[in-house]
Structures are given as C-alpha cells and as structure tokens.
Amino acid sequence: MIARRAVLAGLAAAPLLELIGLEAAGMAATDPAFGTVRRLDPAFDRIVTPGASVRRLASGFRWAEGPVWVPAQNALLFGDPPSNTVHRWTAAKGVEVFLRPSGLRTPVPASIREPGLNGIALDARGRLIGADSGSRAIVRIDLESRRRDVLVDRFEGKRLNSPNDLCVAKSGAIYFTDPTYGLADGDESTLREVPWCGLYRLSPDGKLDLLDKSHRRPNGVALSPDERTLYLSLSDEAQPEVLAYALDAKGMPGERRRFLDLRAEHAAGRPGLPDGIKVDARGTVFATGPGGVHVCSADGRVLGVVETGKAVANCAIGEGGRTLFMTSSDMLAAIPLEF
C-alpha cells in the first residue's frame, strides 16, 4: 500500500509553532502572501474576494487536518492526528492546544499511525463530533467539560478500521468514512476486522448503515444545504474524484454520479489528492484535491482554485462566512471570502 500521507505530502518534522493571526477586519499583513489563486470563471469573484491572497496563520504541525469553526468560541478547531492533538486558533491568541490527547488515550502502539482525531464537526447542540482514528470510533466531546462518549466503534460486531472524516445532518445523523489511513500497515494491518473501506450513516437512534463499500480510499464527506446530496472525496491515485450521491427523504443514498474529476490535475503532478470537502449555505463546494481547494458551483463547474503550494488536507468556512480556513500539510492558512 502507498501510504496516503506520503502520497499527499509526507509528514513534516515538528518544529516550534509559528503563530500568526487574522485581524477582525481582514487578513493581517504580518506574514507575506503566498500560494496562487487561479480564477477560472467570473463567478469565482462572488465567492473568493477578488485580489485576495493566501496567508499562513500557523505552521510546524506534523499533518494539519479536519478544521471546524466554533461560533460560540469565535474560534477554529483543527487537528494534528499524528501528534494526537486538536488545536484552537483565534485572532487574538493565534494557536493553542485544545485537546491532547485528542484521540487514543493510552500509549500509542506501533500498529497505529494516526492516534488523534481526524475529521471533526459540530452537532446541533454545539458538541464536537469526531472521527477518532486512534480509538477507531466516532466520538462526541462536550467542549466545556471535555467529556467524551463513544457513539459507535463497530459494524455488525467488527471493529471499524480508522474513521477519517464526517459530517452531521440536521436530523443528527452522522455520515462518515472508514478507510485504513490511521493504521500503520494500512490495508495489510493485522488490526483490521472489516475487510472494506466503507461509507456509513449513523442514525440518531444508534443504527449504523453501510452505504457503500466499493471504494479503495473514501475520505471527505459533506452535505448540500438541502441535504439531498452527499458528496464523497476519493483519495485514490487511480480514481482521484469527488462523487455525489442523491439522498432520499430518509437520508439514504440512491443514484451516484461523478461530481468532479481531478485526474488531469493529479497527472500534472500537483500536490495532494481529493481529501476534505465543505459546502457553504449557497451550495458552493470547496473540494480539496491536487493543487489546492477547488471551488465549484453546485452543478460541478470549477470556478477557481486556491493553492498553497502544498497538499491541502481539508478546509472550513468560518468567521460568519467571511474566511476559508485551510489545513495544508504542516500549516494552517486562510483566504477571505465574499459574504
């Protein structure tokens, strides 16, 4: 197996964190702009602020992942799964440790590559829902007390592989992916009990449904605003694309189609693979992939690409819709959005 992290970017060393913040009214000028913004369609200017540049907010992480904006704290939470840590970023303080350990709370065995939380989201009550690669479970964490509850860690009695990313529906249902990225030996790990890398739906009543087991590298998941479409990114070097599943009134998938084909970007050697994905209230899809964040209309047109020069693992929309945050290899970056 080709290690996903090696394919995407490779793990960085762990130097001291470099902390840089955003000003309340926009990007701070304390750090030089970097990266590239590729405008492919005039509609891009209604989403990403025209003339805006990417700014680095912090660096020095082993692999930055899974950001989510927490309105109640006016803060961004994001993980570093190999370091078993969730960090919090605020404009006032920059980055500070929020949870450590974030996932596995025992000594980390050699058989686990990523012991920490990966994808994270908020439920309707503001609690953190996390894909815990180390504990191989979907967990819920109260942000004030830090109390942790395991929501599911098995399918039909068998341990999950290493849950990777998730999204939460208005009903409370959780869609998540369960590849083998968190296991040191990947597909060949002796820890595996489930022989596939699945896409699942956990109902509010605790029922776990397997929606799709046909993909090698399922990764990021996101819902459209009307929750009639579920997007799935495939971190598969042989099939680098984003799929869209039509959901019925019960939130179950029917027909699926290719939403975004990133083979050409991958073949051109641009860094990364399809990974995290987010959707804004207008239905704009922000899909990470070879080259950066691909900003797409709801009908699948690529309007532009935001590049950091490194693989972008995931992204989040924060500050009231005014900022796109990006976890990119060893750093946290951002660019302003039109709101």
List keywords for this structure.
mainly beta, Neuraminidase, five-stranded antiparallel beta sheet, 2 helices, disordered N terminus
What's this, in brief?
This protein has 339 residues and is mainly beta.
What does this structure look like?
There is one protein chain. The longest helix has 5 residues. The chain has two domains: 129 residues, no CATH class; 138 residues, 6 Propeller (Neuraminidase). It has two helices and 28 strands. 3% of the residues lie in helices and 42% in strands. The strands form seven sheets. It has a five-stranded antiparallel β-sheet, with no helix packed on it. The chain has 339 residues and is mostly beta strands.
